[in-house]
Write a structure and sequence with these properties.
2 copies of one chain form a homodimer.
Chain A: H1 2-6, H2 13-25, H3 30-43, H4 47-59, E1 75-78, H5 87-96, E2 101-105, H6 115-119, H7 131-141, E3 143-147, H8 154-164, H9 172-185, E4 190-197, H10 206-222, E5 226-233, E6 241-242, H11 244-255, H12 261-277, H13 285-290, H14 293-304, E7 318-323, E8 328-333, H15 335-347, E9 361-364, E10 371-372, E11 377-383, H16 389-396, E12 400-403, E13 414-418
Parallel strand pairs in A: 1-4, 2-3, 4-5
Antiparallel strand pairs in A: 5-13, 6-9, 7-11, 8-10, 8-12, 9-11
Helix pairs in contact in A: 2-4, 2-8, 4-9, 4-10, 5-12, 5-14, 7-14, 9-10, 15-16
Chain lengths: 419, 419
């Protein structure tokens, strides 16, 4: 099979079924799967192969069943970015509009944060639920955000850990099948994908992000899941906060009817896509933010998982200012550099299993488009360990572009919409 | 480094040194080296990278030192084929002409035989020698054929075992560096390469075999070893025997001044190249075959390693005839099919460490160019285990092409000569 893909042949259905099953059982060794993954990265897979590969990964584990839920299920997946806290306000918002949102989420790695890491900054909140607990929270609240169980697509878990150490993460067929195998196994009936593009995204090139989005939409449709994708901007951080507790605070502001305009706009756009795809009509997510019904779901959902939605959020022990060194218009802010700085402050992890700091991260006090004066406060850096400041500041070198009279150079919030 | 080669960048000298050293020490995992090997196979390495890779593998272990030998050292390496027993008559022949031949050899895998497996069919003969024993046999006899010690290019041993199970054997940069790291570490001052091509060879395409040959000649010259290569025919088996003891018998016939013409011709051609490259003049290898001096070296060399050159060779317990089913001219004989049949009879192994049968193999009673009558004996199959005959006969289906009045379709013995 390795030789076949190496020599640009198609893999047959039985070959794909066999290799995924044999790898999960340990019959195919890590070094053999690594060679195959590199051959797939360099020589590709066609849509039949990707579809079969995805199915084989789904079949390596259990499938969730939400048939006891009477509301239509709606799920969302983001490929991850800097300051991307959208899941936090979005899940209770869609629930407030009548959807059931089973949001199985992950932890962060590298410069992008993870939804579970963010929520774990809320005192008492628990990410790990049994399947029964998950169903109960979803039934009682209309939304649940928790860790995916070990029984869901175990082949993907093993393969992802291997790809992470063998430079084979960046293969569109493997990215698409990894994401979609988990999402399809989660058993949602509709799915909206938020594929990020720009410097802070996994797929920095918008054309590549579009290919990934179309591949995933096709996989979803083949599996009977109503699927749409938005390719959205991640050249600039989302909102005004990057870091776990800082992002929870901003999410709560949005649920309270405030918050930064880009976070509000993307939350509402995704909510409308999810509601429409789930077949819900006559509901306006904007009013669910204004009338407090989304906030009610949030508080109930956090409480149901042991969290105290009213408790003060952790604050880092130390902070440092980052000032503008020149005057002019801010025309760009590099999401990757800000993400790396937040990671270095302790908000992110370098290895699976590493602890993250709840309070660490960055507050942004200005965004592209604003006029800046030299000496003006641009960011506040937070960490419990002040020895982390120098390397974080190194990462921020050149992160902000300020010029006299230049035009703002950034992606539109929605780069592409794929139905 | 994996990502760099995946993205078609050059690897730097320090990167190459590090990865070979780290892999040998177990710091780089098998799955990481497998992904890198696949990226090298698909994206290539330039001549600087191949040269550095080879050096790093040499530096992973010891280098042999023959400075106490007064004769010029001359070595030969064949990439392996079906019935390729040339090392057996060649090493004593070159020694009889005044060269010192330190022939560190390997065992067979798959359809090609190994020099050590062949010699081990001689009762008492020992392949494993200490460095001191090796030097003594070379000093006393002018030639030594033995196993390469574990201290020689250990990085290559580990990497070859990995490539074997990850479909990354067929990468010219990795083949060339594997062969040349061992040959350069062996410390010979001159080297003649016999690169086989045709169906029974590792590199069936003559153009690819030529690229491999030129890559290796360049590596040898860069390392200060006088190196030449012949690309030679392996579309048809060499000689009239395939199998361990059968090939020793044929080699002894050549040393006695007889034997099949193709084996004699290739042995003499390679001997002349080795003698010339070693700077020996006024010696005629043909007369060393006729006057018995090459046979004298053979007997002395076999005895020095515990073998009894006069003892009868093992004969397989069972044999079966393979007859022509039609009349006409034999225009082709597929070396691969004959090699696979001999392997299935027990002459070869499927896995490193497996035992082989000394007496198993195939005697050929006709070769391409001969007129054949239906019912004529074409081959005799030998094995200790008669249950092996059916699968060996399956492999021989279509191995011989007999047509009425057709032209012989085979490669010239010497396809290309690279100086």
């Amino acid at each position: 099979m390795i030789a076949a893909k190496r020599d640009r042949h198609e893999l047959s259905d039985p070959q794909i079924d066999w290799v995924i099953s044999a790898y999960t059982r340990g019959v195919v060794a890590d070094e053999q799967m690594a060679a195959l993954a590199m051959a797939i990265l360099l020589n590709g897979m066609n849509s039949r192969e990707i579809s079969r590969w995805t199915n084989a990964m789904i079949n390596s584990g259990e499938r969730m069943n939400w048939s006891s839920i009477t509301r239509p299920t709606a799920d969302k997946h983001s490929t991850g970015g800097v300051g991307d806290k959208i899941t936090l306000p979005l899940a209770p918002l869609v629930a407030a509009c009548g959807g059931a949102v089973p949001q199985l989420s992950g932890r962060g790695l590298g410069h992008t944060g993870g939804t579970l890491d963010k929520l774990e900054s809320i005192p008492g909140w628990r990410a790990e639920l049994s399947n029964e607990e998950m169903l109960k929270v979803l039934q009682d609240c209309g939304a649940v955000i928790c860790a995916a169980g070990a029984g869901l697509a175990p082949a993907d878990k093993k393969l992802y850990a291997l790809r992470d150490v063998t430079a084979t993460v960046e293969a569109i067929p493997l990215i698409a099948s990894s994401i979609m195998s988990k999402k399809i196994a989660e058993g949602t009936s509709s799915l909206v994908l938020d594929v990020k593009t720009g410097s802070g995204a996994f797929m920095s090139d918008p054309a590549q992000a579009g290919i990934l989005a179309r591949t995933m939409v096709e996989l979803g449709k083949n599996a009977g899941v109503k699927t749409r994708a938005l390719v959205t901007a991640m050249d600039v951080p989302l909102g005004l906060t990057v870091g776990n507790a800082l992002e929870v605070r901003e999410s709560v502001e949005v649920l309270a009817g405030g918050g930064p305009s880009d976070v509000i706009e993307l939350t509402l756009l995704l909510a409308r896509e999810m509601i429409e795809l789930a077949g819900i009509s006559g509901k306006d997510p904007e009013s669910a933010l204004k009338d407090g019904s989304a906030m009610d779901v949030w508080r109930k959902m956090i409480s149901a998982q042991g969290g105290n939605p009213g408790a003060p959020l952790p604050v880092a022990r130390e902070n440092q200012k980052f000032l503008a060194t020149e005057s002019g218009r801010m025309v760009g802010m590099d999401a990757m550099k800000v993400g790396v700085a937040a990671w270095r402050l302790g908000a992110g992890r370098s290895r699976q299993g590493e602890k993250v700091q709840a309070g660490a991260g960055i507050e942004l006090h200005a965004k592209p488009g604003e006029e800046i004066a030299a000496g003006q406060l641009l960011m506040t850096l937070h960490t419990d360990e002040p020895e982390r400041f120098p390397r974080a500041l190194d990462a921020l070198a050149g992160s902000v572009t300020i010029v006299a009279g230049g035009a703002v150079n950034r992606l539109p919030l929605i780069v592409e919409r794929i139905q």
